[in-house]
Amino acid sequence: MTFRKVQGNDSFQRINYLYQISKHMVDKNPTIASYYGNLIVNVAKKNVLKIHPDIKRQICKKCRCILVDNVSAKMKMKTKNKSKLIEWICNICKTKKTFPADRNKDHRVWLEKPEAVVEVIS
Q: Is Thylakoid found in the keyword set (predicted)?
């Protein structure tokens, strides 16, 4: 069995660690959580890596704080033109993020779909 080294593996581990710290600190000090969120984005940019969609959806685009319901953000379900939407409103900067939420449609990001997986590296 041959193992290939994943490019940027140490950077992915650092992003994961920063994400966990940010999520832990968001209720204690949102400013520090924003700082760690900013580090996540900067590490990904410097190493030309894509942040996992689940993590990226939880980072505010403006202040880069981790969005946690009833802690650093408010989550609302909205209906627009017969389609359901999830709206996140950041408590720090009041920026809104909207995602589709219809049950009968597949709104997953392409990376989350099975056809996006070409090879599994263990």
A: no
Within-domain flag for 122: no
- How far apart, in Å, are the Cα atoms of 12 and each of 74, 98, 105, 117? 28, 26, 31, 18
Give the domain extent around 59: 9-116
Kindly report the CA angle at 110 between 109 and 111, in degrees rounded to 5? 90
Dihedral sign, Cα of residue 75, residue 80, residue 85, residue 90: negative
* Cα–Cα distance for residue pair 16/23, rounded to 1 Å: 11
pLDDT at site 97: 94
CA dihedral (49, 23, 116, 106) positive or negative: negative
Other beta carbons within 10 Å of 112: 13
